[in-house]
Amino acid sequence: xxxxxxxxxxxxxxxxxxxxxxxxxxxxxxxxxxxxxxxxxxxxxxxxxxxxxxxxxxxxxxxxxxxxxxxxxxxxxxxxxxxxxxxxxxxxxxxxxxxxxxxxxxxxxxxxxxxxxxxxxxxxxxxxxxxxxxxxxxxxxxxxxxxxxxxxxxxxxxxxxxxxxxxxxxxxxxxxxxxxxxxxxxxxxxxxxxxxxxxxxxxxxxxxxxxxxxxxxxxxxxxxxxxxxxxxxxxxxxxxxxxxxxxxxxxxxxxxxxxxxxxxxxxxxxxxxxxxxxxxxxxxxxxxxxxxxxxxxxxxxxxxxxxxxxxxxxxxxxxxxxxxxxxxxxxxxxxxxxxxxxxxxxxxxxxxxxxxxxxxxxxxxxxxxxxxxxxxxxxxxxxxxxxxxxxxxxxxxxxxxxxxxxxxxxxxxxxxxxxxxx
Length: 422
Prior knowledge:
- Heterotetramer of two alpha-3 chains and two beta chains (the beta chain is the multi-functional PDI).
- Residues 300-407 form the Fe2OG dioxygenase domain.
- The structure is a single chain.
- Helices cover 31% and strands 18% of the residues.
- It contains 10 helices and 18 strands.
- Strand 5 and strand 6 form a beta hairpin.
């Protein structure tokens, strides 16, 4: 009965894939926010080599164990990413040294394991002398290990020859590092006082729906045109939408040629809601139609997509509109995505901003607000300035709802300009 009960509960528990995903998320946060590994291990989100205040100070600090740090380093090592494996295995080795000889029921690895992987990581990074000293330390604890003894001899020979040719055998696997694409820090943004066209206003957009309660609009950027509508949704409506989507959440996919598939550059879970799912969804769609002035009737818009980003959840730079006629977006036969409405359903403790890369600005998460932008120019061409990314969530839980509106049906609502370049 106990075994059967455990099997039932086990389905809801994180598995090996979730654990490895969390390790990769920590490395992603380390890169994007330039965080100190030692600080992260101590539960502090501090920029590496900086004396400034931490990016985020949690109310309750949770430290990582030596075993935790070893696992993150091992995930990097298995990917051939020795840049990250060295940083995390160094931290693991330091923590294992402090507690060497004392038994911890949670430890699945040891000082010897960490030294073994760290030595080979340094060797693959070209630092043979440090690989040699770490391998000698390993033999101090385990003198009978023939593989490491052969590596020591090889390292000594390489140093004598003055070369760093690779020919040793580390713990498997030990392939070369893959290329890495990172969302780096943005350049400094212009101060608001130097941007006189950015204003706040109450908007009715000529809609009777908004006469008694106008939309609270903040113009965030002129090119590309981006607006933030504050208090667009209530707390109760946001909770209802999250509750409706929760049971249907699946790992998010991206368009790849003519297919859709999972990708490391988009880490989130999503679900789709029809307007018939609940009166709250129907009311929200009416509000979007009123604010944008666009036609959302099928097939002119996609269903409401609800997305959840957890630890390190992110979406690397991308366009919402299709850049190829072979994209699955054209299966709706309603043209390309002309506009995006993204509603923030939750607050985020740290991270999670929407960054427009080429336009060089970002919009932080504002709970219950809706972000709007045009993906296409008036001539139907994609607007390159809308390249954007969902920055990794540093702390907390990020929920958004996306509404993608297509160009067909909008011919008289957003007509072409007399200037074909517009």
